[in-house]
Amino acid sequence: MRIGLFGRKNDPHVLSLRKALQEAGGIPVVIDFHNFPRFNWLAMGDRIRFDDIHLRGTLDLDDLDAACIRTICFDWPVPMDGHTPRKDALDPKGFTSRLRAEVMKVATQASVVRALAARIPIINPPESARLHRQKALQHHRLLLHGIPTPDTVVTNDSRRIQAFLARHEGRVVVKPQAGGAEVVMADDAFFERFRDLLRYRPLMFQQFVSGRSFRCYVVGGTVVSMGEIRHDRQHVDWRERVQAIVPVEPPTEIECMIRRAVEHLDLPFCAIDLEEDATTGIWYFLDFNPSPLFVHWSRVTGAPIARHLARYLVAIAGREEQTRFRFAPGEA
Amino acid sequence: MKRPVIGVFGPLSDPEVRVLAARLYNRGADPWIIDLARVPDQVRLAWSGGEMLLGGRSLLEVDAAFLRRTGRTLPPGLQPGTNIPPLPRDSWDGFVAKAAGALALEHPRVALRTALLTTLARHRPVVNPPHLQRLHRLKFLLLNRLARAGVPIPESAVGVSPLVAGQDPDALVAKPLAGIYKTRLLHPEPQNNPIPPFLVQRRVRGELVRAYVLNRRVLAAARIVFGTTVDSSESQTGIAPVHLSEEAESVALRAARAVQAPFCGLDIMLETDTGRCFVIDLNLSPMFAAFSRLSGRDIAASLADHLLDLAAVRIPFPRRPALEVLEQAKELLAAEIDRNRCERWSRGAPGTRGTFQEARGTLTKAPRWPEERN
User: Fold this and answer.
1) Is this structure's pTM higher than 0.90?
2) Distance (Å, rounded) from C-alpha B329 to C-alpha B334?
3) Residue B168 pLDDT > 60, yes or no?
């Protein structure tokens, strides 16, 4: 079974998964678009062929049986690597040209992944992975399916913001709607600093839930690892402020809810951030990461996430339909 | 009796939006023009739970919707397709910082607009839904879908592929993979081509036909009359309505089916040497106002009827009698068009009935229609 791994060749997660795939009996093929199209090209008819100097030959992407996306696209163009404002100053037309080139590059990569997703199982399906960049839609979907998420409003209407703050007695956070920024308290300091921001874009306000923080890794609808995150409580966002990770077993009812949530969001592999409210004891689903970092987590908790994922990929490979929840990792 | 509310997403300045809203209004519907680019500067948004309010009005009031444009609010210098004029070296750093800030701000705005539209499309029929509209910016995927469905497309590649090797430079074109710039002949000197990646495609020589497909039916087709440029839009002088051959019609319908588009505009090249036809582009939000004017085929009216059919599934309502509609449509057309100018165009290039540019010029003078409520 040939399993495509989309990501940087030297990414530790790609390397770890590659090794695990070999152990699981799959044939991993790393597809690195970083230098595209400097060292590689794509030919397209009814089949897509990819040529890369590192592949030592042309790869027919239609020969892949499954694929896993570690990193591939940005939803918004960013200037290409190696170009600085100083270099742009020497080449005034360069900035927009490179911006356009980045749009084209992103479009090509997204096209390839979507074309493959119509044929083979992909982890994660592009439409599901997109939800990570559309938090309002993600929240809406969770609500529709009765998955507990904190009360949320997306608005630029100051009266509604005031009403929302009053309803939650000021315990409200501001979340980035498209990722890429820190979650912070919606307090006076925030409004003082970002008052003008509401003129330019609506913000996502969410009820602040405080208690115990958890992260769990899910493969094929099964929780393969869960841990409590101990972190500096002075900050809302615990990323990069983790003090300890304590492995825990998920309560049965929470595991059922996790399974339901990932089925509705169509995420065969993801990391979920949960928070247990200290006052009410309710577990809230805060975020779903469709391409989570797992190497460090595996090192700390001992959970072989790459192995679980690799076995799952091999199990679903070659199937025409996405069989995301039909095989638990143990069955693979 | 409740009138069906048809959402038309796009700015009021867009001729397609105005003409469609007029046709809808004329048929007894309540067109709601929603310009998402005005969120949040001029329109308040509140999305909480299942409630989506735009300017205090629930988006779910819409019974069916037409998505013309999602809307951008980037400053003019950063709009795709614009060139930044040369700046003094000292001010460049400041410009890049501002540009990066504007792009960073646009990211969540686009995410939110797309999220709104995607949610609406889950609850109400939308022509064309956002996941299809994205294909316009994913040309590689679009062409792949067409190729897989057996729709003839010219040989295509991205990057320095064997397709390029040994080819006559006049035989290949460089096309954008996500819109934005024009199609050009592939230049043998790389520095004269756009910065890679771009789509390299075999150049098909022959007649270019634009065809509109709505609900699995070819609505109208016309030959595009243009000069010697590779990209027809750069030298277009007019259109000449044609009847599609059986083969071309089959290709058009297969192409629309391949992408599951209820409404689209196709560019079909009829190759002179072989007589074969190739789809070179498929537009999921095509311009149709000027085409209608010049071809005499009222695409907006057909589109309005289709939207009302979709809305009728939710709320049956009595349509106005056909004759009355026809009379009103005539009046409307008369108001929109400066007939004298139209006749003057028709005396222009042989076989043509005026230019798109001129037709669009008059459309901007069309009467105003019920304003957006928010």
Assistant:
1) no
2) 8
3) yes
